[in-house]
Amino acid sequence: MRAYVLRRLLLAVPTVLGVVTLVFVLVHLIPGDPVDVMLGETARAADKAQLRRRLGLDRPLATQYVRYLYHLARGDLGRSLQSGRPVRDLIVARYPATVELAGGALLVAVLCAAPLGIAAAARPRSALDAACRALAVVGTAVPNFWLGPFLILVFAIGCEWLPVSGRGGVAHLVLPAVTLGMGMAAILARMLRGSLLERLGDDYISTARAKGLGERRVLFKHALRNAALPVVTILGLQAGGLLAGAIITETIFAWPGIGRLTLLAIQARDYPLVQGCILVIALSYVVVNLGTDLLYGLIDPRVRS
Amino acid sequence: MTRVVANRQVLAGLCIVALFVLVAALAPNLAPVGPTTQNLSEDLRPPSTAHPFGQDKLGRDVLSRVVYGARISLLVGVLVVGISAVLGLGIGALAGYAGGRSDELIMRGIDVFLAFPGILLAIGVAAVLGPSLRNVLLALCAIGWTGYARLVRGEVLAWREREFVSAAVALGATPGRVVWRHIVPQLLTPLVVQATFGVAGAIVAEASLSFLGLGVQPPTPSWGAMINDGRSFLLVAPHVALFPGLAMVLIVLGLQLLGDGLRDALDVRTED
Description:
The structure holds 2 protein chains of 2 kinds. Chain A has 13 helices and no strands. By secondary structure, chain A is mainly α. The longest helix of chain A has 39 residues, at 215-253.
């Protein structure tokens, strides 16, 4: 297991370096003079020169890149143009809210998908199976930026059961988590059903049934444990995807997380902050994927070799 | 072929997609008024016989805007998939055919692109380049090509050892010719399935960018931007956000049915 962990960690190094480099390239794609874009064309020449010096844009590109890597290695993401505060502090302040939202969405997805997927696989071609299929199809077709506003309309404005927006207790979390988690619930339910049906056709299931085990025991003890493996992988991949979906969901619900911070930074043309946000979201995704891989190795010894 | 047409999912999907293609093609004939014609004295009016989908905050006809919005959605969907597929085909074939270190380098590069979740990279590109239709296309192609490249590379690796490919090489066919004439035809089915899902993905991604204000600029009608506009008037005029959303759900549903059906009927394995 230790060799496996070490190998996975080593494999992640070039990916992380690549992500860091791509984000650097991205910000240098700004057409024309980035300082003009940030300050507006009417800014005074002295201000422009000062900002250019502060961002290091007056140096050669290679020097800028090395400086960027050097600062990054020390955890320095630069300063926000708008507030002047360190980008790292702004992101650290917002990060827990996004983790809370993503965690809530994950919980919603698993709570919806697990019973539905299991029930559908236990009775294929039943009404429940049809419901599972319908949820899977509709869940992936309904975009979260449309679902969110209508959930607000029905449950916050219409019924007044839940708050419209903002972050607070559990009540505040429900609608954003459902909005963000629904697409994932659909994919998971479908995956779980397919994976379970496949396992239920295996020989060891026939053996378990032949020796007289109850259908419930066969399903939960024998089939589900093996069927869960591929679903865990999807769970990991999708959990990272939640981070990107959070940009839209946080915008809809005025949720004070890193996704909303990203969009506000884009609107303010605060490029150091945009760069920091995109970098942190992408690196979080790399870490989540790495964690999934390691978890997978822990559950299934075959993966380690 | 009969299997494909007989598949109920394929048929249903095809009908829905054909409907939207027709709507987009006949937009000037179907739309009651121009998509940008304002009527400020009739803002946020609910659906009526004159305006079946109602009117938005500037008194524009929502039906006309949904109909014209189909043009933007389909245009973006088809262009993004077309460009991404060609790009991915070239890069994937290069990796699979060249093998060795070039292959390793290209695959690591793809890993870096895949390290950005969902549309994050597209949001970044659109944010940096500024909002416009051209930049939306650029941003979505930047994240779209990797899937095709991986698919093509895998198939090239699998097919290049086969006798008919070796025979072509022995007869002096250039790598480009081998890939185009001998390997691409073998790939058509998985490519078609992936492209079908790709169009749906690109349509949702374009709408997402437009929703965030990073896409097509007003007054050009885009479903994502219309939903964002309607958000402020949900209580008084839910129809403004309702209809563009319904249109989007329907076309994505159609494309997914088509893709699922094609996958089942043609029995292809796609990576997803």
